[in-house]
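Listing S7. Sequence submitted for prediction.
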Amino acid sequence: MVFLEDVYELGLLLHLFVTFVLVGSMTHNLIHVSRYIRGKFARQKQELLHMKIMFWSYLVTYIIGALIYPAFRVHIRATAFDPVIPWATGLFEVKEHWGTLGLAVLLSWWYIRRSINPETDRTHLFFGCLPLCLIFNVLVWYKIVVGCWLTMLKGAIS
């Protein structure tokens, strides 16, 4: 018996649904930050709300992923990926490492954004918030594309 084996599919589905929330909030946040670059600061409260939603949805997605990982490792990785397409295991592991890096980027971005005013701290906006926002979006989209691709590969093997 593997930890949370009986609810793996439910956990995976929750992982997906919270990821939808994450994608929406991080996309809206990117739009707000790009408006700041153009000198439009009217929606700072909405941007901070999206930042909070993004922060918590990433943490919840990360935790759910960690909880369902043991069942994945035993039942999918060991039975489907390792014997048939071993490079998929490596791709998944890289995806997980990028996820941890994404957590570090998000925490840094959260700290910087909470401590600046975009209207007056333009240097921190250009060299802190904007690069971290872009890096975080790229990391999460990479994880989403790889996760979907690996799910399709698993379905093709079964």
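Caption to Listing S7: primary sequence and predicted structure tokens for the chain studied. The mean pLDDT is 91. The radius of gyration is 18 Å.
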